[in-house]
Amino acid sequence: MNDILAQALSKINNAAARGKSEVTLHPSSKVVTKIMTLLKEEGYIQDFKSENTTRGTITTVQLNGKINKVGSIKPRFSVTMDTYEKFEKRYLPAKDFGRIFVSTTDGIITHIKAKEVNKGGALIAYIY
User: Fold this and answer.
1) pLDDT of 1 over the 80 cut
2) Torsion angle of alpha carbons 43, 48, 50, 55, nearest 10°?
3) Domains in the chain and their CATH numbers?
């Protein structure tokens, strides 16, 4: 297993494209859990539940049909305050439509919040 986040987001993207209402992510990690928390705050998913088992963490995600596309950003580009716009044009279909998730020293946050607090970081994922 190389990239747990990329696999989880791919499963969510495929389930959303097929119109499913629930998807199970196994294995899961702290990064996946944080991304799911941000997706819930932004309104892209309805709810999620993580449970630890002897075989690892399993996360069940309730979809609400608001996801057009979600994916992992590879390689993890470094971004500064003056380069956010370039990556917004690359990964999002329109200005102020969708979110890019950035790993900063404050944790994983959306690119909009990162611009507000004047932080750079590494790009992790996108959704719209």
Assistant:
1) no
2) -110
3) 4-63 (3.30.1370.30), 73-127 (3.30.1490.10)
Question: What is the DSSP-derived secondary structure letter of residue 55?
Answer: T
Q: Which helix (H) or strand (E) holds 62?
A: strand 56-63
Residue 2 is predicted with a pLDDT of 86
Beta bridge partners of 107: 104
Cβ-based neighbour number of residue 86 at 10 Å: 11
Phi, psi of 64 (to 5 degrees): -120, 10
Average pLDDT over residues 33-53: 96
Contact (CB, 8 A) for 9 and 128: no
Query: Is 70 exceeded by the pLDDT of residue 116?
Result: yes
